[in-house]
Amino acid sequence: MVLGMALGKREMLVMAMAYMLLAVSAGARHGKVGELGEEAEADRIIELPGQPKVSFQQYSGYVTVNDTAGRALFYWLTEAVHQPESKPLVFWFNGGPGCSSLAYGASEEVGPFRIKKNGTGLYLNKNSWNTQANVIFLESPAGVGFSYTNTSSDLYTTGDTQTAKEALEFVIRWLNRFPHYKKHDIYLSGESYAGHYVPQLAKNILTHNSKSEQPINLKGILVGNAVMDYYYDNVGTVDYYWTHALISDETHKEMLSKCDYHNKTVTPECKAITDYVENNMTGGIDMYSIYTPPCNDSDGSPRTRRFPLQSISSSTLRRRRRRLSGYDPCTDHYAKIYYNRPDVQKAFHANTTNISYSWTTCSDSLFDNWTDSAFSVLPIYKDMIAAGLRIWVYSGDADAVVPVTATKYSLAQLKLKTKIPWYPWYVKETEVGGWTEVYEGLTFATVRGAGHEVPVLKPKASLQLLKSFLSGTPLPK
């Protein structure tokens, strides 16, 4: 056992007993003590500071994805609450690019815990996705969150291609560390700029599988409010602004006439009208959730919010938010406190190399210097459909950053045949969760009243999406 190298025999015995007691009390049958290799066992989380008692196992740590440059990605696995040995493995990615899956996916969306105000501890999320699957949160690429590189220039030279390549390397090496997961069905999920990460990784996995004697058991992808196509994302966003009364008729015409979204080069005229809209038209609302007001300083520092790589945004937005009906949008402020605590990092086996900067929700260096961003990932969708992967795309309909109109415009380019026409789907028998349409090879769904981070405002609807996706059945009528 790696941790035992620096301990005496008495301490090692105490530690071993603690592991055994934890496994017994948790009723763990999946990856239990004594069955894992040294690397996997060293990643086992005993207990996180301020964590309520749970019945599932957790693991976290580093997987090196580039030995020469010293790049390593950090992960957090939360195994399924019940029967983890028979449940699928779901990877979750946040976007940015440069934003942490711990900060968002794990801590305020689909993870098992929420962070208490001011980072003092954790409490349970009853709509956690690990009620249905084993969920692994990956901080990708190197430079995001606890993931690190020993080559400082990497923070200024990273892009789509390298991120997808090293995400595949992570999956391969992680499965070798936890070989019992190789037999599980594997799904990739995420939101926002993960609309690039997820299909690009899926494509790399399909290529790997065509050449490998040990294929990865990839079954499908699930992405929300996903960046898909530069042109249609931008035109769809401008139209969303207009149809939701965020801009005038004249401004709508100006944006479409002065911005050539067929070209990523932003002209001075396009930048001028975009800046005008951002600074004068939106009224300081949260564009990620247009019907929830921003947070004030009494609840937390201004939250860094960022648009995806589109010319529709000329700068990183920094918005203030406040509480609304029990919804606390300042949780990433609490995450900054919690994940920078030394006792938390020790429990997570994180920051073992003493990274020179503090853990943060998003990396400005990566975001501002992203080197290559695919104009469109729609060709990859055609490849995934041809390969028979299960593909679900969903949109929170109150998001003005990657809005539902943008996603619908993009998906329309695939020209898929409709299997089940548009209908309202339900979380409960009387509660409309949104609307959906099932195509040959792809399912699309909206989530009513949700913003960019769908599970934040609509956790029950988000969980229903996952249940239906994993079962491969249409959303309930």
Description:
The protein has 477 residues and is of the alpha/beta class. The protein has 3 domains: 1-42, no CATH class; 48-228 and 331-477, 3-Layer(aba) Sandwich (Rossmann fold); 230-330, Alpha/Beta hydrolase fold, catalytic domain (Rossmann fold), CATH 3.40.50.1820. Helix content is 34%, strand content 18%. It is built from 15 helices and 15 strands. The strands form 3 sheets. Strands 1, 2, 3, 6, 7, 8, 9, 12, 13, 14 and 15 form an 11-stranded mixed sheet that branches. The model is unreliable at 1-10, 12-28 and 296-326 (pLDDT under 50).
- Summed over residues and divided by their number, the pLDDT gives a mean of 88
CATH architecture of the largest domain: 3-Layer(aba) Sandwich
Structural class: alpha/beta
Number of domains: 3
- Using DSSP, what is the number of strands? 15
Strand content: 15-25%
Largest sheet: 11 strands, mixed
First-to-last CA distance: 52 Å
Overall 3D shape: globular
Helix fraction by DSSP (H/I, runs of at least 4): 25-40%
What's the number of helices? 15
What are the secondary-structure elements, in order, as H or E? HHEEEHEEEEHEHEHHHEEHHHHEHEEEHH
Please identify the top-level CATH class of the largest domain.
Alpha Beta
What is the CATH homologous superfamily assignment of the largest domain? Answer: Alpha/Beta hydrolase fold, catalytic domain
Radius of gyration: 22 Å
pLDDT < 50 runs, ≥5 residues: 1-10, 12-28, 296-326
Short description:
The chain has helices at residues 9-26, 38-42, 102-109, 160-177, 194-211, 230-243, 249-258, 268-281, 331-339, 342-348, 364-368, 378-386, 404-412, 454-457, 459-471; strands at residues 58-66, 71-78, 89-93, 113-115, 122-124, 134-139, 148-149, 186-191, 218-224, 303-305, 317-319, 390-396, 418-428, 431-439, 442-447. By secondary structure, the protein is of the alpha/beta class. It has three domains: 1-42, no CATH class; 48-228 and 331-477, Alpha/Beta hydrolase fold, catalytic domain (Rossmann fold, 3-Layer(aba) Sandwich); 230-330, Rossmann fold, CATH 3.40.50.
